[in-house]
Amino acid sequence: MKQEEVCLDGKILPLYIIQTIIVGSGAAGLNAAASLYKQGQRDIAIITEGKRMGTSRNTGSDKQTYYKLTTCSGESDSVRQMAQTLFEGGCMDGDLALAEAGLSVRGFCHLADIGVPFPHNGAGEYIGYKTDHDPFRRGTSAGPLTSKFMTEALWKEVEGYGIPVFDGYQVIEILTERYGMESRSRGVLALNRRAVKPEQRYVVFSSENIVYATGGEAGLYDMSVYPVSQTGGTGTALRAGARGKNLTESQYGIASVKFRWNLSGTYQQVIPRYISTEQDGSGEREFLDEYFDCPESMLYAIFLKGYQWPFDPRKTRKYGSSLIDILVYQETVIKGRKVFLDYQRNPSGSEKEGHFHTALLHSETYDYLKSSGGLKEAPIKRLESMNPAAIELYRSHGIDLYREKLEIAVCAQHNNGGLSGDWWWESNLKHFFPVGEVNGSHGVYRPGGSALNSGQVGSMRAAEYIVNCYIGQPLSGKEIASRCGQQIMASVDFGTKALATKECIMDMKEERKKLGVRMSRYGAHIRSREGIRTALRENRIQRQRLETSGIIGSGELGRLYRLRDLLASQKAYLEAIDDYIAHGGKSRGSYLIYDENGEKPSKDLPECFRFLEEDQGLSEMIQELEYFDDSSRFLWRKVRPIPEDDCWFEAVWKRYREGVYFQSDSSNLR
Fold this sequence. Notes:
By secondary structure, the protein is an alpha+beta fold. It folds into three domains: 2-63 and 146-249 and 416-480, 3-Layer(bba) Sandwich (FAD/NAD(P)-binding domain); 252-413, no CATH class; 485-618, Fumarate reductase/succinate dehydrogenase flavoprotein-like, C-terminal domain (Methane Monooxygenase Hydroxylase, Chain G, domain 1, Up-down Bundle). Helix content is 35%, strand content 20%. Strands 1, 2, 3, 6, 7, 8, 9 and 20 form an eight-stranded mixed sheet that branches.
C-alpha cells in the first residue's frame, strides 16, 4: 500500500494505492480478505463504514441456518444433486449453482476450523436438518447468531494476518474507465466519516481490483428486519455501470420492529395471539379469526409460520400460513393500525373452560408441542419451556414478553437479486467482484441458509480469480487524476453544492423515511402495476428535489450520498418490477402482484389481493438491468445451464495445470 495525494481542480485529496480493496466487513468481505491473503496476495485492505455494522454481525433468527452438502451418515447426497436443488429454485444460473454446491463443504469446514461452533456428533459428523425448499438434510446451525459467530471468527483470522482496515469510510463512487466496448473499475472515492477538517473529507483509493461485499439493499425499506446499521451499496454500483440481476426478487416475512428480528421457529410454533390497535393503542382487537373458517385452521396456520416464515403467495389460499402476512399488511399498511404478537394470552377460540383446548390442534402441531415439552397453558409458558433463550433475547433489548406485546410488521429480510456476475463472481464491470448478498445469485426460491454459503463460496471464487488473473498494478496518482478525475470531482461537487445551497433545506431523516415508506407500500410483498407507477413518479420528484436542495451541516453529507444512491437503486428496482409485469410476470417467490383476472385468497379480502401464480414461463429467464440517469435498459436471457459432467481425473488435471478454468468461457468445462 502506498499513500500519496492527488490534485484535482486545485483540490488536494488523500490517495491510497492498493492492489485489491474489499468494500464491506461482513462474512463475505472478511472471507474474501482472508482468502486473498492465504493465496499470497498481501497488498490488500478492507474499507468499511463500521466494523460492527452490517447484517452478518447484527442479525439472526430462531435457528439461523447455514446450507451445505450433507455431511452426516444415513443420507446420500452429491454436488450435482445440491446444484440441481439450487437450480430448480428458478432464475438461478446453473454454473453458479454448481460452484456453490461444489465449494460448500470447503467453505463450511473453513468456518468450523476457525472456531464457528457448528454441532457434530461423537464421530465428528456435522449433523443437519431440512430447510426451506430443500429435500435433503443440508441445513445446519450454530444457533440464532450463526452469522455473528462467523464474522467474529473471520475478524480474528483477518486481524491475525494484519490486513489493514479503513474503518469509518463510506464509499460514494466506484471509479471506472471505459476501453473499447467494456468498462472496468479503477478504485473508489470514499467519504471519511471521521474527518475533522474539510480537506480530509474525501479520500481516493486506487486499486486494480474491488471485491464488493456491501450486503443487500436494506435501506430501501421502512419495514425491514435488516439491522438499522445496514443500508447496502447496490445503487452506487448500478450508477457505475455494474449490471443488475433479478432485482424483482426479494424475501419478506413477519418480524418485530422495535427490535428487528425474524419471528420464525418457536416464536410462531407456540401459537401467540395476533392483535391490532389504533396508532394510540386504542381499539384493540384480534383480526385473524375473521378470515379463517374455524379456530383449528387458524391455529395451524400460526403454527406453520414457524416453518414457513417467508411470505409465499402459493401459501395464501386454503387458509395457508401466508394468509397471515396478507392480513398483517392489511392492518398496518391499508388500515394504518399497529399489529402485535401477544404471548400472554391464547388466540380467540382456542380455550375451553379457561384452559388451552389442545383438541383443536392439528396432529402435527400437537405432536410437536408434546415432544418439545410445550403443552402449556399460555404462549409465554410454552415459549419458556421450549426456547427460554428466545425470551431472553428480547429481554436483553428492553422488551419483556411476559408483560409487553411485541409490535410486528411484514418486513424485507433478504435480496435474492442484486448485481450480476459470472461463475467467478466478476461483474460485467471488469475487475469488480460483487460477493455475498449484493450478488444476485440466489434465484427465486432459495433454500434457507443458502445465502450464507453463497457468500463464502463467492468470496473464495473471486479471490482465486484475482490471484491467478489480475495481478497488475493500480493507477498512480497522476494516472487516476487523468482517467477518473472528472468522475471524482463530479461527486465532490455534488456534496459541495448541497452544503452551499440555502434556499431549500432537506431533512435527511425525513427524506429517507419517505423513500422507505414508498418501497414498503408499493415495492415489497404486495405489488401492482398502478402502485409501481405511482412509486416511480414519487421517486422522480424526490430525485429532482435532491439535485436542487441544500442540507444542514457537513455531518449530513453521508446521509445525502446514501439517499442519492438509494433513490437510484429504488428507481432501478421499481422499473425492474414494472418490466417484469410488462413481460407477463405473475406472483411468485415472496411477492403477490395484483391481477384482475386472478382469485383472492379469501372472499372477504379487498380486490388488491387478487392474483395469479407464475406459470413457470419466466422462471427459466434472467432479467438483467443496465442503469442510466433517466432510464433503465433491460436484457432478458435464458438461465445458464448446469455445466455438463466431466469428472475424468486426467482431463481435469490437465485443464487445471494449464489454467483453462480461468478463461471467460470455461463454465462449460467442469
